[in-house]
Design goal:
The complex is a heterodimer of chains A (311) and B (410). Chain A is of the alpha+beta class. Chain A is built from twelve helices and 14 strands. Chain A is globular. In chain B, strands 3-10-9-8-7-4-5-6 form an eight-stranded mixed beta sheet, with helices on both faces. A four-stranded antiparallel beta sheet of chain B has the order 11-12-15-14. In chain B, strands 2-13 form a two-stranded parallel ribbon. Classes of the chains: A alpha+beta (311), B alpha/beta (410).
Chain lengths: 311, 410
């Protein structure tokens, strides 16, 4: 098969995406496919796809444009098949405001949250309502941009006085900010792959110092990972079940990663999902595959079969 | 169960690497480098203004006539002919030097690293301007000093602060300063302060590292004496051709007492054996034609002056009265101070989204301050792009101000 691996782009996660894309290109090559890397940040995507038409686009883009349905819609228009979740579902999954709402409706536990829109703050005097948010969510809390990845713009807030600055920081990355209750416990990631979104072993994430922020994610050695996660059987089963339910509620496809917290009562809470999870040498999904005894090529093959069955 | 550490050597790294981590700001700069973004961030010299044909001629001459030398190892101190050129360039600024007291380094940046290596023991105190050149801070930080920060005002380093620290009993290993058109503040140390600093350091036996990359990029006014010429015995002087010719050749130098030079040469040989003969020869040949380099430099200075004017004009036009900024008479940078509630690190993502970039102020302080400051570089973008970039920043800042007022109920 002729596969264009889309990676790079114009987001702050560009470098991470290029690393993911490079690895995917190699793994697809090992499966005997003709795979090449295509960086929409460097070339005009539509033109490049016209010049060298692929049978399929493998989406290894991270962040806005790559994960929010933009590229997916374009590929729908061009009638080119692609890996991963469909355009509209990407839009929902990528936007934490929409995704959390969809999860709540589906009965998936996700930490309590409120949303503050930048526009409402600037033009509607929304800042006066910030006290309400603290009342409702409590402290400590986590402030996140609604549409961003890799923990960019995320702050962990202990004191009410620090909340305005955290909100401003989140709004630097996105039009809306979420203020979310902080769940104490173990941070885990559950990857799902293939036609039936088979679960991969759960990865537990333990930053050496402070929260699992951008630096903890991308500084080699700053975080320790345990796979399978050090959870009770019951908690592991609950995480697996919840990841599956999340994928169903958000209509995720092919390959995805659900990030969760398991609280001190062994109860899992879904934080967010990734429709294009990182596939670098330091990413969680390849780590989980390795523990399962699968190669990256094998994982790619499941994804390709899933796409093929859809067609 | 498997325990994964992404980096299997993580427990083996030296303590001095603990500050070396991935950062959001770096991730954003990857986007800021894209052509659609007006980058007021990087201090890249406008090398496009150099006469390409003349550069090619010099390169051809070097490889054609001196090929075997250019492609060979050289001595650790650097070629004598090039040290002569360095002496000539320093004479332009009134610094008298003997080529025997000069070591050529891989940019002045390497001299900073080597000076850290030969002077700083872990825990030693060193005095730096606040804000200070980020590259010096990171070079020194690897040797684990404690930083004594001395504030700047529009006359440069406030020497009284250093004096008070010394009276308190502090004895910094050295004082580091960029006295001419400093990076990031664009401020030039006044004559009075130069005399004060040199006298204080002489009395107390504290060496001064004078880093002077921008001295020859003066737009107006009379040059002030270099610290080195005020006290040759106590001042280690750093020069570079990165701004007068090309940063790509990586040619800088240190001028110091023979005892310091001896240690620097040994440290340099340990680090990289020698500089690149190829680019040293290229640089030496470039500066061998007086008319050529002076004409090229004058062209660069004219370009930078116009760009400085464009930036100051745009700041006047677009920025609110709550902001203040420096008015450099040379060099590359304007230093902007916003109201103290501002967080220029957090704001950078929104700036890049609006296709403009700057360097957040916190980069230039070793102690986490500077959140309300930003460095704007006018050296590389065209005047139109500078005006556009400043206008975009001003619009962003206006939005930030509205956010702040809403969040703080005023």
């Amino acid at each position: 098969m002729r596969i264009a691996v889309l990676a790079g782009g114009r987001t702050p996660e560009r470098d991470v995406s290029l690393r993911s894309g490079h690895r995917m290109t190699l793994s697809l090559g090992e499966l005997g496919h003709e795979a090449w890397l295509l960086d929409p940040g460097e070339t005009q995507l539509v033109e490049a796809l016209g010049e060298r038409p692929p049978d399929l686009c493998w989406l290894a883009l991270h962040g806005k444009e790559g994960e929010d349905g933009t590229v997916q819609r374009l590929l729908d228009l061009l009638e080119i098949a692609y890996t991963g979740t469909a355009a509209f579902d990407c839009e929902v999954a990528f936007d934490k405001v929409l995704a959390k709402d969809a999860l709540k409706r589906a009965g998936v536990p996700t930490p309590p949250w409120v949303v503050i829109e930048g526009w409402a703050l600037r033009d509607l005097g929304g800042g006066a309502a910030l006290g309400k948010a603290v009342e409702r969510i409590g402290l400590p809390c986590v402030v996140k941009p609604s549409r961003s990845g890799s923990a960019l713009g995320v702050s962990f807030v202990e004191r009410e006085a620090d909340l305005p600055q955290a909100v401003m920081a989140a709004l630097s990355f996105s039009g809306a900010a979420l203020i979310e209750a902080k769940v104490e416990g173990r941070e885990v990631a559950a990857a799902l792959a293939g036609r039936d979104l088979e679960p991969l072993p759960i990865v537990e994430i333990v930053p050496k110092d402070g929260p699992y922020d951008y630096a903890a994610r991308y500084t080699a050695g700053a975080t320790e990972y345990f796979c399978p996660a050090r959870l009770s059987d019951a908690a592991s089963a609950a995480v697996g079940e919840l990841a599956g339910k999340t994928a169903g509620a958000l209509r995720l496809r092919d390959l995805t990663r659900v990030d969760l917290m398991v609280d001190t009562n062994d109860r899992p809470w879904v934080l967010e999902v990734n429709v294009s999870p990182g596939m670098t040498e330091t990413s969680l999904v390849p780590m989980a595959a390795q523990v399962q005894g699968r190669t990256l090529s094998d994982l790619c093959d499941s994804v390709l079969r899933s796409v093929a069955m859809r067609a | 169960m498997a325990e994964f550490s992404i980096d299997r050597f993580v427990d083996r790294y030296a303590e001095r690497t603990s500050g070396m981590s991935a950062s959001e700001v770096r991730a954003l700069f990857a986007v800021a480098a894209r052509p659609e973004v007006v980058s007021l961030a990087g201090g890249m010299p406008y090398v496009e203004a150099l006469p390409a044909r003349a550069v090619l001629e010099v390169a051809t001459q070097v490889l054609g006539e001196l090929g075997p030398t250019a492609l060979q190892y050289g001595g650790g101190q650097g070629q004598l002919a090039l040290r002569d050129r360095a002496v000539m360039l320093m004479a332009e600024e009134g610094v008298d030097a003997d080529p025997a007291d000069v070591v050529i380094t891989t940019g002045a940046q390497q001299a900073l690293d080597l000076l850290g290596k030969i002077f700083i023991d872990p825990g030693d105190m060193i005095a730096v301007e606040a804000p200070a050149y980020v590259g010096a801070l990171t070079a020194f930080a690897a040797y684990q000093p404690r930083f004594l920060t001395i504030e700047l005002d529009d006359e440069g380093m406030i020497v009284e602060q250093l004096e008070r620290a010394i009276v308190r009993g502090e004895r910094p290993t050295f004082v580091y300063t960029v006295p001419n058109f400093g990076n990031p503040a664009g401020v030039t140390m006044s004559g009075r302060r130069r005399d004060q600093l040199v006298a204080l350091c002489r009395e107390t036996g504290i060496p001064i590292i004078e880093d002077n990359p921008y001295g020859l990029l003066r737009f107006e006014g009379e040059p002030l004496p270099c610290l080195r010429s005020l006290d040759p015995r106590n001042v280690i002087y750093l020069g570079t051709v990165s701004k007068t010719f090309s940063p790509g050749v990586r040619v800088g130098w240190a001028l110091a007492d023979p005892s310091v030079i001896q240690r620097l040469v040994l440290a340099k040989e340990a680090a990289d054996l020698c500089g690149s003969n190829l680019t040293m020869l290229l640089t030496e040949r470039w500066f061998s034609d007086d008319d050529r380099w002076r004409t090229a430099l004058a062209g660069l200075v004219d370009t930078y002056r116009s760009r400085r004017d464009a930036m100051l004009g745009a700041l006047d036009e677009h920025f609110p009265s709550t902001a203040a900024w420096t008015h450099p008479s040379g060099g590359f940078y304007v230093w902007v101070t916003l109201p103290d509630w501002s967080d220029t690190t957090a704001m950078l993502a929104a700036a890049v989204e609006r296709r403009v970039a700057y360097v957040p102020g916190t980069a230039f302080y070793p102690d986490g301050r500077g959140g309300d400051r930003m460095r704007l570089a006018y050296c590389y973008p065209t005047e139109d792009r500078i005006r556009e970039g400043v206008a975009r920043l001003a619009a962003l800042f206006e939005d930030e101000e509205r956010l702040y007022r809403s969040l703080h109920g005023s």
